[in-house]
């Protein structure tokens, strides 16, 4: 049996961590989005319980997360270094850009749920789960908007190859929520704050105001996602009596290939709680 299929045998969705696992085990993007919205609605309505809020020390409540999320047959996933260079001009260039962003958003759905499920047994405040359920729901909505826009342009998600770099970062930080928060929201998602304004300008220059408007919505909402990463990274540093800035730099050096590079969207990063002295020294 395929190991990815064996790791994703369905479990009863009796708590938030199991529901998170079910989202990761869903290969179809539309069904993944639907599960995300249903689970978020259940959580907000009080119909789902985080592991640390039930009989916490009971080992039978532990949910094992899959090493990788289930994925559809398309798009073809490639190492970032093997990805073909995107053409910048015309409708094909815009499709390639939107397809790349849609792939990031689909991964971001799984990253939010993996953070919830993989580290659910830790003694988090309920607000931790509130934040990341909201992030997952936002990412699902972003993916839906982008997939619809691709359809309007005569394309579909899966038409082009996509890179697997985001999940490589997830695997590298699967052992520690502090490392995950340092690298995924505070480096990779923060990078989205830096590069999205240029994407918006490019789409506007091409006369594609509809696509530009979608990215403007995503940019505004991603600030809150980076802020959630910053907030819970700070929380864990306080609990572990660690220096926040030094710890972040050490974890980025250990688990991220490369360093954050300018130009930085300092206004958006400040709005997310990331002070320039945190990342500029590393750059």
Q: Any overview of this molecule?
A:
The structure is a single chain. With 283 residues, the protein is mainly α. The protein has a single domain, classed as Ferritin, CATH 1.20.1260.10. Helix content is 62%, strand content 1%. It is built from eleven helices and two strands; from the N terminus they run αααβααβαααααα. It has helices at residues 3-6, 16-24, 29-44, 90-118, 126-152, 165-172, 177-205, 209-239, 244-255, 266-271, 276-279; strands spanning 77-78, 162-163. A two-stranded parallel ribbon has the order 1-2. The radius of gyration is 19 Å and the shape is globular. The protein starts with a helix and ends with a helix. The model is unreliable at 1-7, 9-14 and 51-61 (pLDDT under 50).
By DSSP (H or I, 4+ residues per run), the number of helices equals 11
Radius of gyration: 19 Å
CATH class call: Mainly Alpha
Domains (count): 1
**Biggest β-sheet strands, sense, barrel:** 2 strands, parallel
Beta-strand portion reads under 5%
Q: Per the principal axes of the C-alpha atoms, what is the gross shape?
A: globular
Mean pLDDT: 88
Task: Based on the coordinates given, report the CATH architecture.
Answer: Up-down Bundle
Helix/strand order: HHHEHHEHHHHHH
